[in-house]
Specification:
There is one protein chain. By secondary structure, the chain is mainly alpha-helical. It has one domain: Amino acid/polyamine transporter I, CATH 1.20.1740.10. It is built from 18 helices and no strands. 52% of the residues are buried.
Length: 365
């Protein structure tokens, strides 16, 4: 008899794995918040976060649950399941390339963070992050899910604590006067488009990982609970950090790693801890990003082709860190991913409607 009860332990682990996968370089450094939320002011940021939460929950629940329904082969090529072999393969390769691009952002983010904190050459931090990621990916996704799941809730909790304390020192009286002078670039021209674009850019990078994560649960109630837990806590962390930035615009507004400047309000010890949190956040995102890209090249994780893909992607990350700033990589890669992700989201909805209608017609016959 099928167990229909929620496995809360697994739900929390999966929700934590989801958060850890989302909390990467852009999140932990705060770079992406400036263009997606802060640039639109307080009302716009609040609206964008609300829209993002709804969309994030819908596609996370969908992909987690699909892991319960489809075969292991379809889990690793889920876009072909939704769109057919040809279109699915095109989207899947695009997703893999963007996942690889996000791995480059992770390496750059590590280098930029340690450069701002320790004044190291960015390439040193990128090399250290690359070494840790390469070693971890050798374990495979199942073990990796448990590893990042145990780290994810800690990262989110630490972000919330830092943000809450920073909010106690916040001054929102100058937001309307300071914000226009900062000339922040916007990810999209309006706040509601940013609310749509923020989860959509993540769709293309999360798609390869979430179905396999969902398959490890015992039922759909558990995966749905995991989606609720992960998405709500993820967006709570977003809201706290975004409004902490609003309250300290004079200090953090123009920094390339604004969250690092934000933690400086609490003293050098807290700032040092925050650096560790950022590096852990980047690490827990870099690993599944590398895995998603290399698994598209070959599913044989012991093969020479798989290991060559790991090395080649990492070398490309070193080159990207040397040539481009973190903000430049985020703007280009996340913008492209957001547009494609929106198309995929609509396509998934249409695909599900068509499948349900076909099932009803078959049942009626």
């Amino acid at each position: 008899m099928q167990n229909n009860k929620i496995d809360w332990k697994r739900a929390i682990i999966l929700g934590g794995a989801f958060m850890a996968t989302c909390i990467g370089s852009g999140f932990a450094t705060g770079s992406e918040f400036l263009s997606f939320f802060v640039a639109h002011g307080i009302p716009g940021a609040a609206g964008a976060i609300a829209i993002s939460l709804i969309i994030y929950f819908l596609f996370t629940k969908e992909l987690f649950n699909k892991g319960q329904e489809v075969s292991e082969a379809d889990q690793h090529n889920i876009l072909a399941y939704y769109f057919g072999k040809i279109a699915g393969e095109v989207f899947d390769w695009f997703s893999a390339i963007l996942v690889g691009g996000c791995y480059l952002i992770m390496l750059n983010g590590a280098g930029t963070t340690l450069n701002q904190y320790l004044d190291w050459d960015p390439l040193i931090g990128a090399c250290l992050m690359a070494a840790a990621s390469v070693i971890t990916v050798w374990f495979g996704l199942r073990k990796l899910t448990d590893i990042i799941g145990s780290i994810g809730p800690f990262i989110a909790l630490f972000s919330v604590i830092i943000g809450v304390v920073a909010l106690t020192k916040a001054d929102f009286s100058n937001v309307d006067t300071v914000l226009p002078t900062m000339e922040l670039s916007k990810a999209s021209p309006t706040w509601w488009l940013c609310g749509i674009a923020y989860p959509c850019f993540a769709m293309m990078t999360l798609t390869p990982a979430l179905p396999s994560m969902g398959a490890s649960a015992i039922n759909k109630k558990t995966t749905t609970a995991a989606a609720v837990f992960g998405v709500i806590f993820f967006h709570a962390a977003i809201a706290i950090i975004v409004f902490a930035i609003f309250g300290n615009l004079d200090i953090v507004g123009t920094a390339q790693v604004p969250n690092l400047a934000l933690s400086g309000l609490l003293g050098p010890v807290a700032q040092g801890i925050f650096v560790v949190m950022i590096i852990l956040a980047i690490y827990t995102t870099a690993c599944p990003m590398m895995w998603g890209f290399c698994r598209k090249i070959t599913t044989n994780e012991k093969s020479a082709k798989y290991r060559i893909a790991i090395i080649a992607l990492t070398v490309l990350g070193m080159i990207g860190t040397r040539l481009f700033r973190l903000g430049d990589l985020i703007n280009v890669i996340y913008s492209i991913s957001g547009y494609v992700g929106a198309v995929v989201l609509v396509g998934i909805l249409i695909s599900n409607i068509i499948r349900k209608n076909k099932a009803k017609s078959a049942a009626a016959e």
